[in-house]
Amino acid sequence: MKKQIALATLIYTALATLQPLSNFILIPVYTNYLSVEDYATFSILNNLSAFFAIISGLNIVNATMAFYTSFKDDKQGLNIYISNVMTFTLYFSIIFLILMLVLGDTFFKIIFKSPIPFYPSGFLCVFYGLIMNVSTGYLFFLKYEKMVWRYAIISVALFIINTISQYYFIAVLKMGSEGAWIARCLTAGMAILIVTFYHFKYFSFKLDYKKYIKPSLKYAVPMIPAAFLGWVTTYGDRFIIERFVNLRSLGIYSFLLTISSLTEMIYLAFGAALQPFIFDFYVEENKKKVHMLYRFFVMITVCFGSALVLIGSNMDIIIKKQVFLEAMPYLAVMTVGYAAAGVSYLFNLQIIYKQKSKYFLHQSAFILPFNIILNLILIQLMDVWGAVLATVLTKIVMAICSRHYAEKSIKINPGWSLLLPLGIFSLLTVIFLIAGLNGYIPFKISSVIQFLIIITLVFLGYKNEIRMISSQFMQKYKA
User: Fold this and answer.
1) pTM for this prediction
2) In the predicted model, is pLDDT for residue 193 greater than 70?
3) 3-state DSSP of the chain
4) Which is more confidently placed, 190 or 9?
5) What is the pLDDT of residues 430-449, one digit of tens each?
């Protein structure tokens, strides 16, 4: 049983990395076949599609987690419920798309300063954001029912379809960013066909609004404002750059985020693997082992962040357009910000464990205006550097806020020594950035030196943590 849990955890963790991995694999395609302005347009439309994903089906897909337990002992009812969620999302998407056919052009003229057309890429962006959630409810169902292998097969199949089709439309057919959106929409369509095939026995175009839809909407609709605030916090800086600077700067910044955000992928995956151990030690009130796990998590996040800077600084091997390489001086600084976000994730586990969800709302109420004001000021003053500094400062402040609310939830008191690896990483980043900008040492060489220093200091200072984690894994997942 323990081995099955361990295997399922590893599979879900690996599958969670597929989307960012696809974006990373396609970097040579995007950068070699799209201009920086086209890449900027594609990126900001991708951010906009995340907004339409929030309102898709009036957010009903996110009610499946809450309502799954209501049907846990009624498999027939659960399958019919999932079918209703899929069908309602499909109907809503069709109606909303018809509305956007009329209002889309006006909507784009309001939100964008640049001449970004609604047809065809804008429409495809809206289509993708809305329609992708038709299949999401069924995928949630597979996770809840612990149907690991079917979930994995569908996820990997869609990953392959998405990656190969984007390459084909962009690189072979030379369709630019429009080709990328056609490929994504085809992938979303394939997802619907696949889940419909698996769920065909229960799929119906009829809705039982009173029994299934109305209670779900009552739960899901009030969550939309909070989700929208989260979307603004995450993507607002891109729209500010588009509005007050230009598409060229937006393209460079978006490319920078594609690379540096891989740090987030690492700490989320690693955090998912460590969470059961951390929660066990919360229950045992074993603060010493919690502290060791915390230090280990920060150490791994910083090591991977430093490795990412090393890889990113050598991207000229696969990227030929010099304009994209202008993002390299910002990479280490932005990675520090994502490493700080990893610390926030760690502290948020304490809030989740104590189920103090109101604390997340408190954080958002402060972080959102702070982030927007900082971006509005710094971007107009410093262009891309302004956006980078605003993002990094926001993530650092978020980490401080998370620690405050985490300690209000459950007293762990990890101590500021927890942040020593992040502090060393930040200090080295500043030193090598100044040296690089003044021409004393190339960023390629400084990234190697920084990585070697980080690895040496961290592994010399964290031997006990490494031994403890190895021992815990062996004990927990031992047959």
Assistant:
1) 0.87
2) yes
3) CHHHHHHHHHHHHHHCCHHHHHHHHCHHHHHHHCCHHHHHHHHHHHHHHHHHHHHHHHHHHHHHHHHCHHHCCCHHHHHHHHHHHHHHHHHHHHHHHHHHHHHHHHHHHHHCCCCCCHHHHHHHHHHHHHHCHHHHHHHHHHHHCCCHHHHHHHHHHHHHHHHHHHHHHHHHCCCHHHHHHHHHHHHHHHHHHHHHHHCCCCCCCCCCHHHHHHHHHHHHHHHHHHHHHHHHHHHHHHHHHHHHCCHHHHHHHHHHHHHHCHHHHHHHHHHHHHHHHHHHHHHHCCHHHHHHHHHHHHHHHHHHHHHHHHHHCCHHHCCCCHHHHCCHHHHHHHHHHHHHHHHHHHHHHHHHHCCCCHHHHHHHHHHHHHHHHHHHHHHHHHCHHHHHHHHHHHHHHHHHHHHHHHHHHCCCCCCHHHHHHHHHHHHHHHHHHHHHHCCCCCHHHHHHHHHHHHHHHHHHHCHHHHHHHHHHHHHHCCC
4) 190
5) 999 999 989 899 989 999 99
